[in-house]
Amino acid sequence: MRDARDTKDQILDAAERLFAAEGFGATSLRRILGDVGLNPAAIHYHFGGKDEMVEALFERRLGPLNAERMRRFDALETRAGAAPTVASIVDAFISPALAPAARGEEGERFLRFVGRYLQESGEAASARLRRTFEPVIRRFVDLLARALPELRGEALAWRVHFLVGAMFHSMTCREHVSWLCGGVPSVSLERAREELIAFASAGLSAPALHAAELRS
Amino acid sequence: MRDARDTKDQILDAAERLFAAEGFGATSLRRILGDVGLNPAAIHYHFGGKDEMVEALFERRLGPLNAERMRRFDALETRAGAAPTVASIVDAFISPALAPAARGEEGERFLRFVGRYLQESGEAASARLRRTFEPVIRRFVDLLARALPELRGEALAWRVHFLVGAMFHSMTCREHVSWLCGGVPSVSLERAREELIAFASAGLSAPALHAAELRS
DNA sequence: GTCTATATCCTGATAGAC
DNA sequence: GTCTATCAGGATATAGAC
Fold first, then answer.
1. Exposed / middle / buried, residue A168 (Cβ in 10 Å: 0-12, 13-18, 19+)
2. Contact B153 A87 (CB under 8 A)
């Protein structure tokens, strides 16, 4: 009746939009396929199930995104002479995700979805995300470890974890920022990208904690 | 058959445990009430519905938690002479939530649940959380604004938003930290609290961004 | 006052129509 | 190859048993 390629993309578009808006668990196949004008069960022909559709959603966007991050990491490492700054490493990790989000609806939708999925999902999803992200995260952590030699394993891990949390939260609960700053109706995602780089770089660069400095 | 007070608390305990472990949308009343040995529909007698039960869950813990934050803010403001440091303000906001979590399962469970709920939920839940948190967040932002006079409205709002995101993410996806730092089996939540205070204080204190300093 | 039997709707998935 | 009719079970909620 219509081209399968188009149909698949239409389904993924609708799914991404609804997952971002309502959450993963709250969005039924019925709703998604209804938006495309198909029977709920069509999902099984095109993808195999709800979980497999999520996998397709990830692959469609995460491949290019993580490839871009790797390219930027490469560029930082091969730049002769200057060792990369913490801010430039953070920029290479954050901007491929947040710059498209700042440019338009589509990029933002995907990040909102990933953020929600990350929180909602159980072990299986966690493992899936880990498989996808591990190479790029490990590279990121290695670069940071060289730029911040005083930061030991667990400290660096927590701080990277905070950065990731801040990044996703910035997308998924963006509306909170409007009332946080006293009712500015529309906040800028480009601004968020810049502030996050500044915030996270400074946070990562904070002095390492030693037993003696711990506060109550 | 048994005391209603006990039953209510048993239901809330089971709900909190399951919400934290599996997520809000993924946890059915069937499952929760089954753990307590009751029919799923008993929820309607005790609370009125799933949403009202969530409200009760929040009230049980958030009241004391936010009251403690307010007490700490008061203590900072009335301390004669010294204006409070950024780190001490951040500590007053974070520690009442994270110190109980570090001390035991129960405190951690609640934070995991709130973090997941915050991400999963739509407008209604967002509004509910806003009503509960607005006074304490506004106080927090005001204190920070005085300690960081160079940080204007939207910049401060984004950075506080990052802090909140980092805080919840640190709880909800804690297992990720283990592999981030190369497989340390058990990471310390007390360590997370200390690192988060250092990370967020430094991030908030990063120089304000002006148009001229923006990077690609 | 405390809880259960039951109803209704909605979920994702199997099997089969075109 | 593409999609739909239908299914079995799970979701919350109403009405009523004890």
1. buried
2. no
Q: How many CB pairs under 8 A join A and B?
A: 215
Does the domain formed by B60-206 have CATH 3.60.130.10? no
Per-domain residue ranges for chain A?
59-172+182-205
Residues of A in contact with B161 (CB under 8 A): 166, 169-170, 173, 176-177, 180
In degrees, rounded to 5, the angle at the alpha carbon of residue B114 between the alpha carbons of residues B110 and B117 is: 135
What distance lies between CA B128 and its chain's CA centroid?
14
What does the DSSP 8-state code read for residue A213? G
Rounded CA–C1' distance between B42 and D17, in angstroms = 14
Protein contacts of strand D with Cβ less than 7 Å away: A 1-4, 7, 38-42, 44-46; B 28-31, 40-41, 43-45, 49-50
Q: Are A62 and A12 in contact (CB under 8 A)?
A: no
Residue B159 contacts residue A195 (beta carbons within 8 Å): yes
User: Of A162, A167, A171, which to mutate for an interface test with B (greatest number of B Cβ within 10 Å)?
Assistant: A162
Distance (Å, rounded) from C-alpha B196 to C-alpha B202? Answer: 10
Residue–nucleotide distance: A29 CA to C11 C1' (Å): 9
Q: What is the pLDDT of residues A157-176, one digit of tens each?
A: 999 999 999 999 988 888 88
pLDDT in tens, A7-48: 999 999 999 999 998 888 889 999 999 999 999 999 999 999
Among A118, A129, A158, most B C-beta atoms within 10 A, so best to mutate, is A158
Over chain B (216 residues), what is each successive 10-residue block's mean pLDDT? 76 93 87 94 93 91 95 93 93 96 88 86 76 92 95 92 94 84 80 97 93 38
* Angstrom distance (rounded) from CA A63 to CA A130: 14
DSSP state of B210: -
Host H or E run for residue B27 = none
DSSP letters of B57-99?
A: HHHHHHHHHHHHHHHHHHHHHHSSSSPPPHHHHHHHHHHHHHH
Residue contact B180–A137, C-beta within 8 A: yes
- pLDDT value for A3: 64
CATH class of A59-172+182-205: mainly alpha
In the numeric block, which tokens belong to residue B2? Answer: 């048994």
Q: What is the pTM of this model?
A: 0.92
